[in-house]
Amino acid sequence: MSANRLARTLSKLDALPAALRPLARNAVLRRAVPFTGTAKLDFVQLDHEVAQIAIANRRPVQNHIGGVHAAAMGLLAETATGMVVGMNVRDDCLPLCKSMHVAFKKRATGGLSARAVLTEQQRQLMQTEPKGEVSVQVTVTDEAGLNPVECEFVWAWVPKNAPAPAKN
Hints:
Layout: H1 5-11, H2 21-32, H3 34-38, E1 42-46, E2 50-55, H4 70-86, E3 93-104, E4 112-117, H5 120-128, E5 132-142, E6 149-159
Antiparallel strand pairs: 1-2, 2-4, 3-6, 4-5, 5-6
């Protein structure tokens, strides 16, 4: 599988000492997507197959009952799915979130972790088709090991230089 710009950028971090790589990865990705820095998302794992991202239960992202806010949960899950798609989409295409479904099932305990996975077939499709879409499942787990939300995101990719829609 050919490496796209995001994968090439992150591969440069491999030259750093292992202890510095997580900090450098967070800095690079938070700069690329500033809102993830605002929420202080922690990019635990990011490769062509898996994105695992965490968020601590800290005051700036809490709701009125002291848990991680629903919007922060959505951001966490959207970022995990978007990053794994972003690791696979070709450089001549743009990834776009088409839809998100977030069902809140139970109260979350502590911080959260989201793990999104793409299949080999989905990754291959992104490499061979100029546009398309995939449904990306993501598992969100809290500190108690429970899944307080169930999420599904549909991501599309389109050519960067697509013609503008005709004006009436």
